[in-house]
Amino acid sequence: MRYLSLMMSRPVLKLKEINPLLFNFVEELVEIRKLRQDVLLMKPYFITCKEAMEARLLLQLQERQHFVENDEMYSLQDLIDISSGRLSSSLTEIHTTFAKHIKLDCEGLLL
Q1: Measuring CA to CA, how many Å separate 48 from each of 8, 9, 93, 101, 102?
Q2: What is the pLDDT of residues 14-35, one digit of tens each?
Q3: 12 secondary structure, DSSP code
Q4: Which of 42, 19, 43, 41 is nearest to 29 (CA)?
Q5: E strands, the chain, where?
Q6: Cβ(109)–Cβ(42) under 8 Å?
Q7: Is 61 left (phi over 0), alpha (psi -120 to 50) or beta?
């Protein structure tokens, strides 16, 4: 049991390798993958933005650090949260906060 609890949040599943067709049939996975890809595209802005660093925006994903590293790896907890709808809602909220910073709040990008 201890091993399972340790592995719950570890990103060890590469879903595209396990089942390449999964993204064709599970709409929630497509949505999560798109949000994760967007986060990866936004990450360079946050690393170079003083305001984003001070606000610690990327720390909103600290429990899912793998989301700011790649868009391929999933943990068991990710899959459970996708199934329940929790991941979609929380990641959408974080994505909205990130996009708002880049589009509206970031002084460096508004020049």
Answers
A1: 32, 28, 22, 13, 12
A2: 999 999 999 999 999 999 999 9
A3: -
A4: 19
A5: 13-14, 73-74
A6: no
A7: alpha
